[in-house]
Amino acid sequence: MILQTDPGWLPERRGRLTASRMNDALAFLKNGKESESRRKYKVELVAERMVDVAVDRYVSPAMQRGLDLEPDARAAYEAHSGNLCGPAALVHHPRIEWFSATPDAFVDADGLAEFKVPQVTTYVEWIAGGIIPEQHIAQLTVQLACTGRQWVDFAAYCPEMPPPRRLFVRRFAPTPAEIADCEAAASAFLAEVEAMFVAVTESPA
User: Fold this and answer.
1) pLDDT (tens digit, 9 = 90+) per residue, 99-147?
2) Are strands 89-92 and 2-3 parallel, antiparallel or unpaired?
3) Burial degree of 187 (CB within 10 A; 0-12, 13-18, 19+)
4) Which of 50, 94, 142, 190 has the most CB within a 10 Å radius?
5) Per-residue pLDDT tens over the stretch 76-94
6) Beta sheet of 89-92, edge-to-edge order
7) How many structural domains is the chain composed of?
8) 133-163: string of b/e by CB count within 10 Å (b at 16+)?
9) Tell me, what's the pLDDT at 166?
10) Cα(72)–Cα(79) distance, rounded to whole angstroms?
11) What predicted TM-score, i.e. pTM, was given to this entire model?
């Protein structure tokens, strides 16, 4: 386990399928073909393995907002739940090579927490729906698959809202079958990455 604040955290992630990108690994078109985002992600991972340098990725204003306000989200969650959160750390899957996750926090002996700081309109959509947004389910599932923990609290924070409405928390605890499906999809994707890596590195120059 490598803390996110450790200088070795970013190099250790290179070439790995991570929880935050699992949606790309699962992205197929209606006709069954892989999406462009899935194909490009495979190319990114092969490139990182070949040159041992992280591929630059665009950080949108919305993503930067989340990075800047994550400490506030963590504090709000701790005050709301009474849980003390351990630091974010990279964890490799115990059986699947090149498969990892960095949960935002470790909670008690069995839990995790994932913090999101969406724009106000997105936050209102989430609290109106009352459930964890579908686009984040894969990320949470990977975190539990890699860490072996039992549940993860999805904690969305919006400082622009009135104080009683600034935090939205829902607990996610997938079934063993859902974990297994996630692991199978990850293994299939990583097998494709490995095949591409071999093809590129062993082909004539």
Assistant:
1) 999 999 999 999 999 999 999 999 999 999 999 999 999 999 999 999 9
2) antiparallel
3) middle
4) 142
5) 999 999 988 999 999 999 9
6) 2-3, 89-92, 99-101, 17-18
7) 1
8) eeebbbbbbbbbbbbebebbbbbbbbeeeee
9) 96
10) 11
11) 0.92
Q: What is the CATH number of the domain that holds 198?
A: 3.90.320.10
Q: How many angstroms separate the CA atoms of 197 and 49, rounded?
A: 8
